[in-house]
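User: I'll paste a sequence; please echo it back and then give the predicted structure.

Assistant: Echoing your sequence first, then the prediction.
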Amino acid sequence: MPEPIQVTVWGEYRHEKQNPKVADLYPEGMHETIAGFLREDSNLEVRTAWLDQPEHGLTDEVIAGTDVLVWWGHMAHGEVSDEVVAKLKARVLAGMGLVVLHSGHYSKIFKSLMGSTCSLKWRESTDKERLWNLMPSHPICQGIGEYIEIPAEEMYGEPFGIPTPDELLFISWFTGGEVFRSGATWRRGHGRIFYFRPGHETYPTYHHEDVRIVIRNAVTWARPTVNIPDACPNVPPLEPLPEDPDADSRSHTSHK
C-alpha cells in the first residue's frame, strides 16, 4: 500500500474564540472541522496547526513532513511571519501541495506564489452561491454533480486579481448577480496549488458534503510527485571535454 499523504490543516483560530456564532458552528475550530472530514479518508494522515502556536505551528519539522498544506486565514494575515512564509514557499516550489480556502486568497503565502494582488469584491449578506462544475472529468471535481448549491454564503465578485489559472474548475454565481472564478489550479515550481472559494466563518459551509468532497479530492490531487529543493550546483560534464586553454583563468571565479 502507498504511504498515507501527510496533511497539515492550518487556521488562524481567532474568530472561533471571539464570535459566538462561529464558535457554535465550529466548536473545536474551523481547522479541526476540516481536519475531521479529511481524516475520514484512510489515505490521509492529518495534523492541525494555528496562528498563536510557536512558529504558527509550522516548525521546520512540520513543514518538512507535510505533503499537502491546507490554509484558511482571514483576520490576521499580517501576523503571519515572513520567515515562515518564505519556508512554505520554498517547500511548495520543491513539490509540496497547497490548498487555499476562501479568504486565504489574501494570505501572504498565496499572494507570494501568485505574484499578484489577489484582490476582489465582497459582500456578507443573504446570497445563495451556485458553483458550476466546469471540468467534471478533473480529479478535484469527481463525485459531485453539475453544480454545488450553498444556501447562504459570503459573496466574492470579479475582478479577481489572480494570474490566469492553469485550470479553471468552478465558476460561482450569487443571488446578487455577481460571478466569480471560485475553483482554480496553478503549478509553481514542482508544487500544485488549488484555490477554492467557499468557507466564510459565519456560515456552515464546511459541513456541506459537496464542499468536503472537493477539498478531499484537492488534497489527493495536490500530493507531491517529487521533492526537489532549490539548488544551483556546479557539476562535472557527463562526457570528456576537449582541453580548455582558458580553464586556469576561470578557476578563480564561481557562479552562484
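The longest helix spans residues 82-94. The chain is about 25% helix and 25% strand.
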